[in-house]
């Protein structure tokens, strides 16, 4: 697991689940990269939750969503 992601999960897992409104399988990493990991949502196999320590990822994802590009992509983590 990338540096910092384990700490985020340990410290914020319950807050993340409360905010999103569903449980996340924190023990099941579907994949990890240099800055983050993707976790399964047991109640919805079509969606995942990605935790990242890359400070540029949030603003880029926000820009994609605001542009509407996310509606034509096959997926956006």
Q: Which keywords apply here?
A:
77 residues, 2 helices, 3 strands, three-stranded antiparallel β-sheet, alpha+beta
- What's the SSE pattern? HEEEH
Give me the side-by-side strand order of the main sheet: 1-2-3
Mean pLDDT metric:
92
- Number of beta strands: 3
User: What overall geometry do the principal axes of the alpha carbons give?
Assistant: globular
What Rg is obtained from the alpha carbons, in whole angstroms?
13 Å
Gap between N and C termini: 17 Å
Structural class: alpha+beta
Number of helices: 2
Give the % helix: 25-40%
Report the β-strand fraction as a percent range: 15-25%
Q: What about the largest sheet?
A: 3 strands, antiparallel
Architecture overview:
The structure is a single chain. With 77 residues, the protein is α+β, with helices and mostly antiparallel strands. The protein contains two helices and three strands; from the N terminus they run αβββα. A three-stranded antiparallel β-sheet has the order 1-2-3, covered by helices on one side. A hairpin with a 3-residue loop joins strand 1 and strand 2 (36-40).
